[in-house]
Automatic annotation (TrEMBL):
Family named by the database record: Belongs to the NapB family.
Positions that bind heme c 2: 102, 121, 124-125
Function: Electron transfer subunit of the periplasmic nitrate reductase complex NapAB. Receives electrons from the membrane-anchored tetraheme c-type NapC protein and transfers these to NapA subunit, thus allowing electron flow between membrane and periplasm. Essential for periplasmic nitrate reduction with nitrate as the terminal electron acceptor.
A Pfam family reported for this protein in Swiss-Prot or TrEMBL: NapB
Record's subcellular location: Periplasm
GO BP term, example: anaerobic respiration
Post-translational modification: Binds 2 heme C groups per subunit.
Keywords: Electron transport, Heme, Iron, Metal-binding, Periplasm, Signal, Transport
Entry superkingdom: Bacteria
GO molecular function, a single term: metal ion binding
Name this protein carries in UniProt: Periplasmic nitrate reductase, electron transfer subunit
Length: 145
């Protein structure tokens, strides 16, 4: 009895597999990338770093980064931006020194090392690119009048 159930099950297996296959064939799977898996799709335009300096959009804007940052690691142990921009290195690396605001703690005390609140540089600074806004934006800067 037991044995016949097992053989019956095995005999049914191809039927189950075949109907699964037929279902998979008929189901309309929408891909997120908008093409079949084996179909190459051209990338959207890559927004390269703009050379020179772009104008700030408002007075207090963190300056945009005028160089590539691809190789510069920032994590809890290391911050390679500081190897050029920290006050102790900037002279010899010929890079702009971090302004004093980067060395103030929450209470406004002056520190010798970059403040924790300014450690993750790309929270505020991004490489400059002439990219269209991701969402519509009607921001107008104050003119200072
Ligand atoms: C190898 C040295 C070096 C490293 C590392 C480096 N920078 Fe720079 N950075 C420079 C130099 C040199 C300039 C000035 C370039 C110029 O004037 O065109 C500069 C300019 C900048 C500016 C513009 C400052 C201003 O006043 O407009 C920002 C912001 C900046 N870097 C942020 C960063 C950040 C963030 C990192 C890490 C992800 C980083 N940099 C890593 C050398 C470096
Ligand atoms: C919380 C936002 C914030 C973070 C984080 C931050 N910055 Fe800035 N940074 C600014 C702003 C705003 C300015 C312009 C006003 C000023 O100097 O305070 C600036 C200015 C600068 C300048 C130009 C200084 C000058 O005198 O022209 C450099 C270079 C710079 N930042 C590099 C860095 C680097 C490197 C890091 C990471 C170690 C960093 N910043 C982290 C907001 C930030």
């Amino acid at each position: 009895m037991k044995r016949s159930i097992v053989t019956g099950g095995i005999a049914l297996l191809p039927v189950v597999l075949l109907s699964g296959w037929a279902f998979a064939q008929s189901a309309q799977v929408e891909t997120l990338r908008g093409a079949d898996v084996d179909e190459p799709i051209p990338l959207d335009q890559i927004h390269k770093n703009v050379e020179g300096r772009m104008q700030r959009n408002y007075r207090q804007q963190p300056p945009l980064i005028p160089h590539s940052i691809e190789q510069y690691q920032i994590d809890v142990r290391t911050n390679q931006c500081l190897s050029c921009h920290d006050w102790s290195k900037a002279g010899e690396r010929n890079a702009p020194t971090l302004s004093m605001t980067h060395y103030l703690d929450r209470e406004g005390r002056e520190l010798d090392r970059v403040a924790g609140t300014r450690y993750f540089c790309n929270q505020c600074h991004v490489p400059q690119a002439d990219a269209p806004p991701l969402v519509e934006n009607v921001f107008q800067p104050s003119t200072g009048n």
